[in-house]
Write a structure and sequence with these properties.
By secondary structure, this protein is mainly β. It is about 10% helix and about 30% strand. It binds ligand MTE and molybdenum atom.
Length: about 200
């Protein structure tokens, strides 16, 4: 693991081309949750995609684990201004989960155990841009960070990466999720600083 002195860190902070505007680097992994941490046993866990026709496709934990698993190296950026560069995750690509889903809707509502929701355009979940992640830095994802599994959409601010993910519902319109109803941007591109309304 790389260790940086504070001096190096602060020089890097200003000049790093990998750091979006207004962000600073952190070596810790802050926990940001709007409510209590749900505890879901993998034996009870499921993930579903629900389309506009009412068709529901559900995966159990074992079914998820039987799908192709990908290693993901990526930077993450929280709207509260911390960023982590070069994080390592394992998960299943949303391309795999959407492969046989028949939908004409352009938007999704991501739904979590515990009631959290966030809206993401479908195209931002496809083409290698999003995963259901269940490992972080080689370890099972901590419950505080969304374990057993969370959405990982690293090109958007991290509030879009719903912890304790339970399902995705297709929407014809871009309806606001939890934080989006409370002043956060509908899209959340860190490079354009789309933080709030
Ligand atoms: N279910 C759920 N997912 C969530 C949140 C939450 O409160 N509940 N917070 C979001 C926000 S605002 C951020 S910044 C990240 C924080 O993830 P972390 O706690 O693993 O750092 O999770 C996002 N996903
Ligand atoms: Mo956040």
């Amino acid at each position: 693991m790389a260790v940086f002195s504070r001096g190096f860190g602060s020089r890097r902070r200003e000049s790093d081309p990998e750091l979006p505007p207004g962000q600073y680097l952190t070596e810790d992994f802050p926990v940001l949750s709007a409510g209590p941490t749900p505890r879901i046993d993998t034996a009870d866990w499921s993930f579903s995609i629900t389309t506009e026709s009412g068709q529901v496709t559900t995966w159990s934990w074992d079914q998820l684990m039987a799908l192709p698993i990908e290693d993901v190296h990526t930077d993450i950026h929280c709207v509260t201004r911390w960023s982590k560069l070069g994080t390592t995750w394992r998960g299943v690509s949303l391309d795999t989960l959407f492969a046989d889903i028949d939908t004409s809707d352009a938007y999704t509502m991501v739904e979590s155990y515990g009631g959290y929701t966030t809206n993401v355009p479908l195209e931002d979940l496809l083409d290698g841009k999003a995963w259901i992640a269940f490992e972080f830095e080689g370890e099972p994802l901590d419950p505080e960070h969304g374990g057993p599994a969370r959405l990982l959409v690293p090109h958007l601010y991290f509030w879009k990466s719903a912890k304790w993910v339970h399902g995705i519902r297709m929407h014809s319109d871009d309806d606001p999720g939890f934080w989006e109803q409370n002043g956060y941007n509908m899209y959340g591109d860190p490079w354009k600083e789309q933080r709030y309304w």
